[in-house]
Amino acid sequence: MNKGTKRARIRKGDQVVVIAGRDKSKRGRVLEVSPVNGKVKVEGAGIIKKHQKANPSNNRGGGIIDKEAWIDISNVQLIDPQSGRPTRVRYEVEDDGTKTRVAARSGMSFEK
What we know:
This protein is mostly beta strands and 112 residues long.
């Protein structure tokens, strides 16, 4: 695959659980996805401290702030909407040609 054509099965706003690393078993909402780098930002997981310089023109104060770091996409799994347990993702193609993401564990759709 060329750079920039990677597809991520996880999307912004999905509920995921971290399955590896120091934040293992933490659950949260996906804030950002970077398919090219294969990384995601999960709310409340992978928190790092950033020393931020004050910028009065942007009305931003300085200090040490907590923010989410990028986590490898292989270290998170989607949460099954039916059972609330981690699951893999499967795609189902409808008769009209639309693809929907489906939980491999239960067969429930992730689309709202």
